[in-house]
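README: folding subset

This subset contains proteins for which both the sequence and a predicted structure token string are available. Records are stored as plain text. Below is the entry for Degv (279 residues), shown exactly as it appears on disk.
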Amino acid sequence: MGNIQIILDSTAHVSSAMLKQHDNLHVVPLKVMLGQQQWLEDAIDNTELFHLKAATGFYPKTSQPAPGEFAAAFAPLAARGDDIIVITLAGALSGTVQSARMGVQLAGKNNIHVVDSGTTAAGMVHMAEFALQQAAAGIPAGSIVAYLERMAGATHTLFIPDTLEYLHKGGRIGGAAALVGTILQIKPILYLVKGRVAVLDKVRTRPKAVQRMVEEVKQYRNLAYIAIVHIERASEAEGLATQMENLFPGVPLSLGNIGAVLGAHLGPGIIGIVFQEVI
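--- output ---
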């Protein structure tokens, strides 16, 4: 029997240190496009992306990996008999999970498992950490996948965009909603649920939106972890992390940035919380 290989898409924003630590952890990149320029996600950060957007006037777009790119990543691993577990960002945000499943069909192997994380960024990293630990302990791939799917079902993702223009350009909200939201300075709290992006609530100021997000998390008392994610909001994210530490002492907490693909869809100034209930 071979080893178990873990594949993430690049929106996980996994650290280079984690990749170096685990030779059975791999990344399939999404792409970011601006006008005629195109980058693999890890080749551009949000600071550069938003600078170029301001300079050119073009809104960024993204592209999921083609099924053939997944199949190419699978081929050398599956050929030596290794089981493969693929963890993708939420199907609510991207067709990446469908591309991965089509890549499995192209590969023609029955030892490749695709898991829709139902989240992204830090939530995917936590799933990968669990999968790597279980693989190292000799747990079969099927059992790991079953638990990952339970983790996905117990994971919640909330976020507050600072502007609605990127969501509008990406087709997530209508033009009228974006215009009204901008004029009235409405700050929606968004969340991922059942394969779509939904509005949890709408408030009139950013601080009230953050506190509404905190109140939502407080409804869950038994948490496995909390992750604060943001783009260009380090001070605000640190303050939110302090609140979470005080509300949930002893619960593992992380604080980090998110990558350019999510930045392209959500815009600068986003802040979010990913958390998982204990299962």
